[in-house]
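Data deposition worksheet. Section B asks for the primary sequence of the deposited chain exactly as it was used as input, without tags or linkers unless they were present during the calculation. Section C holds the resulting structure in token form. Section D is free text for depositor observations; keep each observation to a single sentence. Incomplete worksheets are returned to the depositor.
Section A, Depositor: J.P.
Section B:
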Amino acid sequence: METAMHAEHHHHHHHDHSQQESRLLTRQAITATAHCLIGCGIGEVLGLVIATALGWGNSASIALAVLLAFGFGYAFTLVPLMKSGMTFATAAALAFAADTVSVATMEVADNVTMLVIPGAMDAGLADPLFWASLAASLAVAFAAAVPVNRWLIERGLGHAVVHAHHQHH
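Section C:
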């Protein structure tokens, strides 16, 4: 009887521990995605604002927004690493490893959402539809990237690469 109770207690303890690890992983993924969303969001908004102001078409608008989203996404990881004394080459390699899949996931989700919302890509900067669509598309991008980042972190990839570096310093 005692052995059965001990086994039950051990199983229950293991279950609690794995739930705790799961919650921690999800929290890390949400934090990494929020960090990524800031860079992506700035690049996306800036790109769409510039392209819209210049009267560019959808393809050029999306291309500029994606380019700037990656640029700002990488910069938000790169700058703190370099401030910690890391060389540009090492910091750039870490930023590339940490952010590429996350930013790419966000950009696909974000731009597909903008393209499927009727009138969103044709709305001007003064049109509430433009801003509402952009907010919705960034929310969709965030929701799409969290499970991707969780999967990467669980395997020691993505933002786990940068977190591992921070723990060594």
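Section D:
The helical segments are 2-53, 58-83, 88-116, 128-154, 159-168.
The first helix runs from residue 2 to 53.
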